Amino acid sequence: MKKREKKIKKKISEAASLKYDPERDYAPQVTAAGKGHIAEKIIEAARGAGVPVYRDEALAETLTRLKVGDMIPRELYEVVAEVLAFVIGVDRGQGRGG
């Protein structure tokens, strides 16, 4: 396999989506997670809905180990807080409040 082919295959290997309502939830919850084609569909759906996409391969790998509906573990609070801050910043930049 050529280097270019490896790069293309590894382009989107894992993805997950989270939801968080600070008034109802004690932690963000996994709403979708998958690898390969499923990961591509998750990202496609997010972009189609205007949801910001944050790329962190290590976090995606960790989140895909969780089940849909799981709250993230305490060990991920800090890194997920960074993701939420990114999303809020993007939303504010696009005039969507936050």
Fold and architecture overview:
- This protein has 98 residues and is of the alpha+beta class.
- It has one domain: name from scop.
- It contains four helices and two strands, in the order αββααα.
- A two-stranded antiparallel ribbon has the order 1-2.
- The N and C termini lie far apart (45 Å).
- About 5% of the residues have low confidence.
Quick tags:
4 helices; 45% helix; 98 residues; two-stranded antiparallel ribbon; alpha+beta; name from scop; globular
Strand and helix layout:
Blueprint: H1 3-10, E1 14-19, E2 29-35, H2 37-48, H3 57-63, H4 77-93
Antiparallel strand pairs: 1-2
CATH architecture descriptor text: 3-Layer(aba) Sandwich
The helix count comes to 4
CATH first level: Alpha Beta
Number of strands: 2
Poorly predicted regions: 5-9
Name the average pLDDT.
Answer: 86
CATH superfamily: secretion proteins EscU
Share in helix = 40-55%
- The strand line-up of the biggest sheet is 1-2
Quaternary structure type: single chain
Main beta sheet? 2 strands, antiparallel
Helices and strands: which structural class? alpha+beta
User: What does the radius of gyration come to?
Assistant: 14 Å
